[in-house]
Amino acid sequence: MSIYREKVIDHYKNPRNFGKLDNPDIEVKESNPLCGDDIELYIKLNTNGSVADVKFSGKGCALSIAAASVLTEIISGKKLKELKRLNKKDIIKALDLPDPGPTRIECLLLPIKALKLGLTEYLKREVSNSKS
Amino acid sequence: MKLKGINVEAIRKDFPILKRKINGKSLIYFDNAATSQKPRQVINAISKYYSLYNANIHRTIHKLGVEATEAYENVRDKVVKFINAKHREEVLFVRNTTEAINLVAYSWGRANISKGDTILLTEMEHHSNIIPWQLLAKEKSANLKYIGITDDGFLKDDEIKEYLDNHPKILAITHVSNVLGTINPIKEIVRYAHKNGVIVLVDGAQSVPHMPVNVQDLDCDFLAFSSHKMLGPTGVGILYGKRELLENMEPFQGGGDMIKEVHLNYAKWNDLPWKFEAGTANIADVIGFGAAIDYLNKIGMENVRAHEVDLTSYALNKMSEIENLKIYGPIDVNYRCGVISFNIGNIHPHDVATILDSEGIAIRSGHHCAQPLMERLNVPAVNRASFYIYNTKEEIDIMVNVLKEIKEVFKI
Ligand SMILES: Cc1ncc(COP(=O)(O)O)c(C=O)c1O
């Protein structure tokens, strides 16, 4: 039962920041075709480039939902620069998890992958906007 | 036939892997529909071949080659008997069920399917009995049609009749569903199909390992199955085909062993069955498969089936006592094999499988290579426990207890 500790179950049953945002600066969907899980992230930024508001929606196993939920807590208020540095260790630590093993790590990574994809798309847009 | 029952305790001693501990717990292997475990008799037969008479087969004068050829061809005779084929030319060695079906779709399909023809399948097929036909249909501009299934997991009788009455060229149908466990009434279906002049390919991947299968009684035109799901090694599959059909088919692959004479501009194909066995065969694993057939024969396929009926009805009873646990497929064990797919509330199957694994219990979770069926059942994935000769009721009890604990952990 080891990886299904209280904290995972709590985040899974009561996901934080679950829902959608209107007119977000970042809106991104990432899916794991292997298990059919998908996670959508919505992020609004302050003028100083820090996270003003974040929500997520989607469906998935307990690990991917808990990881998405705890990720929204981690990134609230953080600067874009700090978001880029996030990795699986931050999620594992925040959820108080032992090593999930090779088959389930993808589930934990799904929300981070979504975030990274969203950041890349956002920064590309910014660059092309500043050029035009 | 009187059943002598099976001695599970003695059988378990033959499977070295069953001594393994997983996360400190004794392995409980319930993923038999994916692949079965192997008895030491099979492992030894392979190792004996490599240690004592490893050589290439056919056209070999030396002693080792003669022994290897004899062992390889002996296994063909064992398979012929095992499925009661009429002629030894009707049994071809291939890599697995998938390759057997691809062979038919390629060699028979290309010559017999033309524009506008219909290929009939069912909604409970494994991807390996869908994709080869999709490829063929695309190439030939043919149509695919699927016999639907009822909510309790049976093929729709009226659709079987209606679609066969419309004269498709071929029906490719699974004998036993790898998700629902449903045993389809193949004999009746073949009879009806033949009345309409329809060729029938049966996917026997989940039936041949678990019950007596007699191709002359079923009267099917083709039957495909895999060694690795019936105690044998990976890399060996069987395609059974009626002699008249195979004789009229062009080869699947070209190369050594499948020819009689080769000239610069033409060649003559070898006789059946070698016409379809191009290149050096998987000799060692075919020999290993022979040992698997011997092992199953010693137990008796009637007894294998009876043991699984016993386990399955026990498991169905125990599992249906768990609130919020949904079982897919027929409830009557007379119409189902030892495959039980289920979901617990809305807990994701990967979570269920992970927790079972932490207790040493191996089940499968996911779409089981049957995505169209998942769509029909309206679920993204299911858990599947599947049994074989070495499984016991005690193991089922342990799984059922963990399933109950999972409900507690997830507070449902
Ligand atoms: C019903 C059915 N058909 C075909 C296959 C494919 O078998 P193989 O992978 O050995 O070719 C399987 C195995 O998963 C199966 O369950």
Description:
The complex is a heterodimer of chains A (132) and B (412). Chain A has 132 residues and is an alpha+beta fold. Helix content of chain A is 46%, strand content 19%. Chain A is built from 5 helices and 3 strands; from the N terminus they run H-E-E-E-H-H-H-H. Chain A has a 3-stranded antiparallel β-sheet, with helices on one face. Chain A starts with 5 loop residues before the first helix and ends with a helix. The mean pLDDT of chain A is 91. In chain B, strands 4-10-9-8-7-5-6 form a 7-stranded mixed β-sheet, with helices on both faces. Chain B is α/β, with parallel strands linked by helices. The longest helix of chain B is centred in the first third of the chain and has 20 residues. In chain B, helix 3 crosses helix 10. The interface between A and B is medium-sized, with 19 and 16 residues. The structure holds pyridoxal-5'-phosphate.
